[in-house]
Amino acid sequence: MNRDSGFLADKLSRVHDEHVRPLNVLVERWRREGRDVPWADPDLGGIHSRILFLLESPGPASSAAHGSGVISPDNDDQTAARFWRLSQEAGLDRRSYMTWNVVPWYVSATGTAANAGNAEGMAALPYLHQFVAALTGLRVVAVMGGFAERWWLRYLRQPESPVLPLVCAPHPSASARRSRPAFEQDIATAMSKAREAAERGGRS
Length: 204
Description:
Strand content: 5-15%
Oligomer: single chain
Number of domains: 1
CATH superfamily: Uracil-DNA glycosylase-like domain
Mean pLDDT: 92
Helix content: 25-40%
Order of helices and strands: HHEEEHEHEHEH
Structural class: alpha/beta
Number of helices: 6
CATH architecture: 3-Layer(aba) Sandwich
């Protein structure tokens, strides 16, 4: 839907809605540091989200220069479309979750995607903590892909990190298919488990 200019303009007009304002205040702060960080999507659950779906880093469709400027399942790319379809099949209400990235800034200097590296992962840990701390309703984290899993586990070594159930899933990009032909089923299973955990659990 973000390919529709009217739909996107309406979404961008709401990035300071109450439920998402604390997250996008962080985004504004990080942009002042020179980081190219997309907005958190106001059509998702914001600080009341029970589930955090955590990926690697923003792709071109999320960047302000080459896409919507929002981290959103409405973005115009295959990864977002696959995530949205599988989340619907898993019975997820979009107001129950947020999608975000371990490295919150766009790492490519062009319109071609680039993978985040270990240096970006290490630099992003304080940003990850600030974002997670703002999610006051969070009950479960679902890491999607090896990079997100590795750096979430690294974050958990920090004494200030929360104690939360963890679900692991493949990244929803098409490149995951090469190593895991059944990756869509794995994602769907993880999403269902995340929904179940969110209905039962909570942070400590």
